[in-house]
Amino acid sequence: MAEVKEKEISPGAVVAIGLGLGGIAVVGLAALAFARPPTPPSGEILESYWRLTAEEIHHPPSDPIPRETDYYMCFRIRNTGNTAVSFRMAFYIPPPEFGAGWRYSSPIELNPGQEGLIEWVFWAGAPPGAYTLTWYLFGDNEQVDSITITSYIS
Q1: For residue 49, what are the contacts with CB-CB under 8 A and spacing of at least 6?
Q2: What confidence score (pLDDT) does residue 39 get?
Q3: Are the C-beta atoms of 91 and 142 separated by less than 8 Å?
Q4: CB contact at 8 A, 93 and 101
Q5: Alpha-carbon distance 85 to 63, whole Å?
Q6: Rounded distance, CA 153 to CA 57, Å?
Q7: Are 86 and 29 members of one domain?
Q8: Residues forming beta bridges with residue 153, ordered by sequence position
Q9: What is the number of domains present in the chain?
Q10: How many CA atoms lie within 13 A of 97 on its CB side?
Q11: 86-113: burial string, b at 16+ Cβ within 10 Å, e else
Q12: What separation in angstroms does the CA of 50 have from each of 17, 20, 142, 148?
């Protein structure tokens, strides 16, 4: 069997090792304290319009949407931040309305400075009239912009 030799460590060496490890910990904590927090996502809605699903004509929100048709609500957006972000549009239906709650579009991923288009298909089945909704742009699940639009069903 191999012989195990014991060595004594001087108290000074123990203190030096402790100070060295403590110093590393202090430097690590200082680096964390001065690290820049991640920048929140930022983006903007550049344009909104609607179009019938069977055509490519862009209509301003003030143009009446024909009743009993499918149409796209379209939002051209831009990532104004400095990191890639997943964007989606949303609107909220307050209670006690039918279907109350948040409704979200499919997400799109945009790099810094990149523009994209979110198209969301709807059915114009409501009675004729004016309908006002606030549309929200979310970036990585944080609200970054909004626009209020009055749509007209004819």
Answers
A1: 58, 59, 60, 61, 74
A2: 80
A3: no
A4: yes
A5: 32
A6: 17
A7: no
A8: 65, 129
A9: 2
A10: 7
A11: ebbbbbeeeeeeeeeeeeebebbebeee
A12: 69, 65, 25, 14
Residues of the domain holding 149: 43-153
Query: Does residue 30 surpass a pLDDT of 80?
Result: no
Residues 61 and 59: their CA atoms lie apart, in Å, by 6
- The pair of three-digit structure tokens given for residue 1, joined into one six-digit string: 């069997």
137 and 62 both lie in a single domain: yes
**With 0-12 CB in 10 A as exposed, 13-18 as middle and 19+ as buried, what is 146?**
middle
Closest by CA position to 72, among listed 90, 87, 53: 53
Helices (H), ranges, the chain: 11-34
In this structure, are 124 and 60 located in the same domain?
Answer: yes
pLDDT at 138 over 70: yes
Do 80 and 20 belong together in one domain? no
Separation between Cα atoms, residue 69 and residue 67, nearest integer Å = 6
pTM of the predicted protein model: 0.74
What residue type is assigned to position 24 of the chain?
I
pLDDT at residue 3 in the model: 63
**Whether residue 19 has pLDDT greater than 50:** no
